[in-house]
Design goal:
The protein has 520 residues and is an all-alpha fold. It has one domain (12-410, 484-518). Helices cover 78% and strands 1% of the residues. It has helices spanning 2-38, 42-65, 68-76, 82-100, 121-144, 151-167, 174-207, 212-239, 248-274, 289-324, 335-363, 369-389, 395-427, 433-445, 448-461, 466-472, 486-518, and strands at residues 104-106, 330-332. It has a two-stranded antiparallel ribbon. Helix 2 (42-65) packs parallel to helix 5 (121-144). The longest helix is centred in the N-terminal third of the chain and has 37 residues, at 2-38. It starts with a helix and ends with a helix.
Length: 520
């Protein structure tokens, strides 16, 4: 019976894989047929068909890998189901791409190479095709091994590698490369620090209090209002910039107005919700469910508006070069090119996104709704802060850094708490067991301020000799709690480090292959 069940499971797995592969193949074939109808044939027509297919492949890989960062924490915290997250993210990703994706896009991502040094139109087309294919292949591999990586770094590496292969080392803008490399450190550190700071704030102001529900009534409306400000400002600066370009001041004022409205609505709502909740820290999680759903939707909309350019920017540049016959830094995006990006991202998310959603949402560290809220805040505030300071950041690195940030903070708090309990036991080592357990019970039930008073009193009673006592006993106990998977951390960090150079090497190889096939 067991062997039969294993065979059935293997067959089901293969069936699911075949379905996903078939659906993806149908999408690529559909792009091919649609583009063939639009072209006049000839070599240029063939190049545009191939470029469109590669663009669709790239878009699917963006959906499979990058979108997980927007919805993973919400799914991991059980604020929303996996199916619900995919539906919301796919809808808002496509909406962001089509509504706010813009009608003009940079063909040379981040000005990483100088297009004036590209020899001719054909070389530019081959360069863009090689960059797009290299980025897509790397994203596909990263998704397969469960590593969330930056799509922007992937396409930048592709353009850089193909550009160097086409025109030599002088074509590269090395100062910009250095700025992007800096984001490998800046993005996760900022994201992790901000997420951890919000989690610590919530613990100090709500969950460490004796009256958890009363504290939640006062603080949660403020936290949700801050979230409304951050996301409104983020959406103004990043999500709708192609429709309505606003300054940071205007965006911040719009965010403030939104926050005040949300605060006024949240106070009575939170009061009604807390009446049904027990005075326990786990009850606070229920108050963040709706904000997390909105956060997933808004992050997906902003991502669709911004990162669709990673898929269709090179494709738009190829289309412009073929139709207009010139190499340009800015290219008009035809609606069909934008649709390829929007549909591809949504389809890639639906077919292959669940793997990375689970990685970000539950495999790195355990998330609840409070921690997911902190990660969402880190995602928006870090981008706002970095954009004002002119720092290069990656949304993928920010979100994943936020997940690691809350995980490591929890490790530190739990390890510190375990050491504190051991201090208490050491202090009471000559007391009766009932006295020790009574003190520990009072300590466990106390709020954070009372805990501090109890520890200070205990330290004074020990005459400052507590540490020496522990050392005399042989301070070998290690009260370390691991709540973050180190193996996954190393795998993701390694993938981040090699994304740009590996995409560059692949793009150079693909460029030489394409040029070799196209030259007479």
């Amino acid at each position: 019976m067991l062997r039969t069940e294993k065979i059935e499971a293997a067959v089901q797995l293969n069936r699911d894989e075949l379905f996903r592969f078939g659906a993806a193949l149908l999408f690529i074939v559909g792009i091919m047929l649609f583009t063939i109808v639009r072209t006049d044939g000839g070599v240029d027509g063939v190049l545009l068909v191939i470029a469109a297919m590669i663009g669709g492949y790239m878009a699917m890989n963006i959906g499979a890998n990058d979108v997980a960062n927007n919805v993973g924490p919400a799914v991991g915290s059980h604020a929303i189901t996996l199916t619900g997250a995919i539906l919301i993210a796919a809808s808002f990703e496509a909406g962001g791409a089509l509504i706010a994706g813009g009608d003009v896009v940079g063909t040379i991502k981040n000005g990483i190479i100088n297009p004036d040094l590209v020899a001719d139109r054909n070389t530019f087309i081959w360069l863009m095709m090689a960059a797009l294919l290299a980025a897509a292949v790397w994203l596909n591999f990263a998704t397969a091994i469960g590593a969330p990586v930056s799509t922007t770094h992937s396409i930048v590496g592709g353009v850089l590698g193909a550009g160097i292969a086409a025109s030599g080392w002088s074509i590269a803008n090395w100062s910009e490369v250095g700025r992007i490399a800096a984001s490998w450190v800046i993005s996760p550190v900022l994201g992790g620090a901000i997420a951890a700071a919000f989690l610590y704030l919530i613990k100090r102001t709500i969950t460490y209090r004796a009256d958890v529900i009363g504290s939640a009534n006062r603080v949660v409306p403020i936290l949700v209002a801050v979230m409304a400000w951050a996301f409104s400002t983020y959406l103004m600066l990043k999500g709708v910039k192609h429709i309505w370009s606003v300054s940071f001041g205007v965006a911040a004022l719009i965010g403030l107005a939104t926050a005040l409205v949300v605060f006024a609505g949240m106070r009575p709502l939170v009061a009604r919700m807390t009446k049904k909740l027990e005075n326990h820290k786990d009850s606070v999680n229920e108050l963040f469910t709706i904000p997390l759903i909105f956060a997933a939707a808004l992050l997906s909309f902003a991502h669709g508006a911004n990162d669709v350019a990673n898929a269709v920017g090179p494709l738009a540049g190829i289309n412009e070069a073929i139709v207009g016959g010139a190499v340009t830094q800015k290219a008009t995006i035809p609606i069909w090119v934008l649709a390829v990006g929007a549909i591809g991202i949504s389809l890639g998310l639906a077919l292959y996104g669940p793997k990375l959603i689970r990685t970000v949402g539950s495999e790195i560290t355990e998330l609840d709704k409070t921690r997911a809220y902190c990660i969402a805040m880190a995602a928006s505030i870090t981008v706002i802060l970095a954009s004002q300071l002119g720092l290069p950041v990656s949304s993928t690195h920010i979100a994943v850094g936020g997940v690691f940030g809350v995980g490591f903070l929890r490790e530190y708090i739990k390890s510190s708490y375990a050491r504190t309990l051991q201090d208490i036991r050491d202090h009471h080592e000559n007391a009766h067991a009932e006295e020790v357990e009574s003190f520990l019970a009072r300590f466990e039930a106390a709020d954070v301020a009372t805990k501090g008073d109890m520890l200070r009193t205990m330290k004074q009673a020990s005459g400052g000799k507590l540490l020496a006592k522990r050392e005399r006993k042989g301070l070998g106990r290690v009260h370390h709690v691991e709540l973050v998977k180190r193996g996954l951390l190393l795998r993701i960090a390694a993938a981040w480090l090699i994304t740009l150079p590996l995409a560059g090497v692949l793009a150079a190889m693909f460029f030489y292959m394409i040029r070799g096939m196209m030259l007479p």
